[in-house]
Amino acid sequence: MSVHELRRKSGDSSEKITINLGVVDLGQIDLLVQEGFYSNRTDLIRTAIRNQLSNHAEVVRETVSRKAFVLGLEHYSRADLEALQSAGETLQIQVLGMASIADDVSPELARATIESVVVLGALHASKAVKAALADRIH
Q1: To which H or E segment does residue 94 belong?
Q2: How far does Cα 129 stand from its chain's mean position?
Q3: Would you say residue 10 has pLDDT above 70?
């Protein structure tokens, strides 16, 4: 299993979200974009989110440490899970960022080796594996 720091870029390390904003807030965002403070709405929203995350960085660090989260990207390969199964061990996945389970992991192997899944961010796994672990994903 490997841990990688997530970089702020498009591609596999980003997730699309949808938010609802009031028309007045949206109008103010458009005004700031029009006045050249931001290149577009997304730029302003990303900047605002990063500022808030920066403001709360210490709380995030303390909570990650206290709850024993892996911070970043954690990938679980079929070989990783087969090694756990051979050793008679199970896995508790706790990730703040992205956890990915390889596409060649069968639902049966996932159920046999993954005891629980807590992901604050994104969980990438096949539909079959997600369905097999549905009662273990919190």
Answers
A1: strand 91-101
A2: 17
A3: no
Q: Hey, how many other C-beta atoms are within 10 angstroms of the C-beta on 99?
A: 23
Among all chains, which residue has been given the structure tokens 């103010």?
28
pLDDT-derived band at 130, boundaries 50, 70, 90:
very high
**Is the CB of residue 83 less than 8 Å from the CB of residue 103?**
no
Q: Nearest to residue 84, comparing CAs of 112, 55, 57?
A: 112
**Nearest-10 crossing angle of helices 57-66, 41-55:** 60
Domain ranges across the chain: 23-55, 59-136
Question: Do 109 and 84 touch, CB atoms closer than 8 A?
Answer: no
Distance CA 44, CA 114 (A): 39
Mean pLDDT of the chain: 90
User: How many Cβ atoms from other residues are within 10 Å of residue 3's Cβ?
Assistant: 12
pLDDT at 12: 55
How many residues are present in the chain? 138
Least confident of 6-10, 11-15, 102-106, 126-130: 6-10
Nearest to 101 by CA among 131, 81, 72: 81
